[in-house]
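Q: I'm writing up a methods section and want to include an example of the input and output format. Could you take the sequence below and give the corresponding predicted structure tokens, formatted cleanly so I can copy it straight into the document?
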Amino acid sequence: MHQGRVVFGAIEEVVFGHPAASAILAQMDRVRSNRAFLMVSGTLNRQTDEIAKIQAALGSRCAGVFDAMPAHTPREAVIAAANAARDAKADLIVTVGGGSITDGAKAVQLCLANDIDDVDGIERIRVHKGVAPEMNAPLVRQISVPTTIAGGEFSSIAGVTDRSTHVKQMLSHPLVVPRATILDPAITVHTPEWLFLSTGIRAVDHCVEAICSRETHPYADAQSVKGLAMLADALPRVKANPADLDARMDAQLGTWLSMGALSAGVPMGASHGIGYVLGAAFDVPHGYTSCIMLPAVMRWNATANAERQQIVAAAMGFPGQNAADVLDAFIRSLGMPRSLTEVRVSPEHFDAIAKQAMRTPWVPRNPRRIDGPAQVREILLLAA
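A: Here is the clean output for your methods example:
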């Protein structure tokens, strides 16, 4: 008999297929916002007219723009954005960009609500040993226009990197998930191909690790299996024709579905856990961490969840085949990296990576039990 608990979070709307500028304005009207603070991609702001179009649509209701959030969401940039949003008297944060910007805005919401204005203050709101501390709930909420497809806009978790230790730390609160997400495929055409496709594999990773989890359930499966099928179909179409907005829309919808299991309480596994470490300690883009680690984790896990892995292969259009082989071939077909060597992570680092991965929230929830760093090292060797 299934047992579990699904918590429906604080997402109010998902708008898809409408132009970003008009959709943002409509959302501001809906939530009665008059001072939107834009946290946006620096590249999008400086090299395209997309942000200017949004600013023009908002007019005097645009309270400010921040476009300096680096990859992996460092604490310093979070504080800079929070202080700018506070000075702008923002009543809403609107993000236009990738996952680091989305996560940054989640952290900014908590900084504003808890009067945090310096880097050390983030220590008061970060998750410790899997538990979020008591804190004030965000009053200034977020609307997200993602330009990548890792799916963080559907999560109430943010990763923020402490550069002094090179460790990515988690922040969590039910109200940091964006109130609304706007999926506009047209704005993603500016995203570099490697970034769009690799974050698509991050979404594939969400689906696969959810399907293969010992803690999954039918509600989560329904979204993960459909999401995986959509991503497996859409990503090669985007690769073949970057101007195919229907393919981009399908990839965005598949990403939305990929987050359903996680928000319904199904944990991720070792691919995500190791990925946290590779991102924070070695600056490997998160999409790339999934490209490299997911097939290796599947091979290592196969003795524990072979039946669930067959669901993965079937959803990707290859029933009866080895799921790790299917994923390996799929990722290679998109031109993505497939080894740690390709991202300049060598075996001399494996012991340190393995020790740190054991401290992430996901490695202990891997479907094949991981008792210590030696087993994480076995997975790393499969990905070397």
